[in-house]
Write a structure and sequence with these properties.
heterotrimer; A alpha+beta (about 80); B alpha/beta (about 375); C alpha/beta (about 280); A: about 80 residues; alpha+beta; Alpha-Beta Plaits; two-stranded antiparallel ribbon; about 25% strand; globular; B: about 375 residues; alpha/beta; Rossmann fold; 2 domains; eight-stranded mixed beta sheet; five-stranded mixed beta sheet
Amino acid sequence: MATTIIKDFCKGCGFCIANCPKKVYDLSEEMNKKGYRLPNPVRIEDCIECGLCDLYCPDFAILLEKTKKKPHTQGKEGR
Amino acid sequence: MSSGVKPGKYFVQGDEAIAEGAIAAGCRFFAGYPITPSSETSETMARRLPEVGGICLQMEDELASIHSVGAASVGGLKAMTISSGPGISLKLEGLGWGIKNEIPYVVVDVQRAGPSNGVATRVGQGDLYTIRYGSAGGNASLIALSPKSTQEAFDLTIECFNFSEIFRCPVFLLTDETVGHTRELLVIPEESELKVVKRIKPTVPPEKFLMYPLDTPGVINYPFPNIGEGYGICVSPYTHNSRGYASTAQDIQEKMAKRLVFKVTENLDKLVRVERQKMEDAEFAVVAYGGNARPAIAAVDMAREKGMKVGFFRPIIIWPFPDREVLKVAEKVGKILVCELNIDGQLSREVARAAKGKAEIFHLGSGGVEPHLPAQIFNEIRRLYP
Amino acid sequence: MSTVGETLNLLHPLVAKYLRRERMPHMACPGCGIGQVVHATLIAVDELGLTPKDTVWVQGVGCNSRITYSTWVGDNVDAHHGRMFAVATGLKMARPDMNFICFTGDGDCGAIGGNHFIHACRRNLDVTAILFNNGIYGMTGGQVSPTSPLGAVTTTTPYGNIEDPFDMCKMAVAAGASYVARWRSTDFKQLSNSIKKGIQTKGLAFIEVLVQCPTNFGRYVLKSSSPQEVIKYIKAHTISIKDAEKLPPEELKGKNLIGEFVHHTDRQGIVERYQQFLKEHQKE
């Protein structure tokens, strides 16, 4: 599984960190331009590809590339 | 689409003529709420609009009426709503939405005696400033036409629809219970003689089109794309930029305000409609509008019979007020008598403003219920003349 | 492998397909549940094959509109406060062939827009209405709303709310809407399925979503601005319709029922009625 945090969409709400069933994310020291501390998927190897972080994120700031299951949406290029 | 109206001579009330005029102009969505003395228009639309495939809804209140009318226009249909004073007051917020987003539609005010609920079934003329300045925030202009007869009610309703498309804004037909409820001759012309302005559509692709031309405030005949036409339109009650994105920037607010005011004020020559009778050698002018114009004209004739050089002037375009034409009248005559059905003086205030002190202005007011009698106006002329 | 990357050209697939890049990130506060509902809406739209060419987003005034207006890449029509249903009526009657996803809020729909809400249900207007119920007036800074809980401290109820909250789903059912349901913003799967169902149902689909407002509801009512705290509060004050059936009324006080209330598949909406009506009366 690959996870990308879209930095300037993240608002530091912490949902991904708090609700991941495998505690994949930690709060990073890194901040984005607005001063929000970003999540960091430090334990990505524990990820079970449930997709909850993506669904919990209110700001579409998490990009998932599922290796095990088929993704429910296509494409990730910007417009 | 055919005109939907049948040419011929009819004996109908002004209210019914308004409905026929709307249909002739291409109106295919009507939403209203019952309110005397406008209900006859709603009832006529309820009978006639389905016959031409249009949508007629009695909405749950005045606000739903105007908001759904504005929305139907955004949806691609020519649309109209109608009410009287108390209902117009309720509609003012919705009017703002139409003004701000440059949405074409027609609002009819069949004025009745006020204030508040007043006398529901009887005439008044107290909404002149309500329609112009009643909607929140200013920074707008308004177009309003006023008929004096059943025939004009038909003709000017079509003109209102045409102006709404040309200027891309809501346009008022400001009438009153006298015109609304008087039964007289209406001639509906052949379809080929009807002049109806079609909605203007963009000729450039969506990425090149600006929904709101804030940088060219005076432009008219500007396209109005609707939903489902691929333009990704954005319509909002908030101040927005040319694309429709909400903005708090001072320069956007400034541009928007100028756009909404200048598009009318820079095109006055296209809007002016007035009536003059016996003004060529007049030394005294009588001014009135709507249903109250009829007794004023009769009084002027009575005065002429007595040898008085009296003329009659009527603004058919009520907003923007025909300042230049009124100034010309003031420069010509010594005195102007304004006869209107309100005590607080509304039309007379506008005439005084436009006259710039070139003539003495007199206000003959009445609380309403009845229009002035010709004798009342004639007595006042006699008292003031020369 | 995982990265915390610069955004530049990366977009969530749903954003790339359906939202305006220049309007992102949307205006919601950190942790606001509205974004989650928008996500569920886009999943529903995507799975049904709706497109920006045939679907319009309609809004009222409040957080509901500030976040969804001009975000959708198709047409957006934002109404005055409370008038969303009236505007949706005009739009749908003019273009019955198009889909309308309409967003509103507890103040927009339950207070100032009450009358239009009731009559849209009564007419069974063929649109899908999603109510963001955060129990407070968020956009204007935290005033009490018709759905604020009894006792809630807000900026206009500094001593605690003494009015009972409004059950808007009950009202929608009573007034005649074809499909009525309530979910929480965190009921991701049920919510997107419910929105799909609503879009496909004839007549009005009224889907209320309890959304967390950390900024105003959290701070004023719960004395906590933690989004997780507000979500916990919502979960503690909700119960599924099924579970509620097993409990006596006293134990349901202060709890919102979650689930589908009604789903009429055969109730005519005003659009179908009007089209039949025209067949009978149109002369040309």
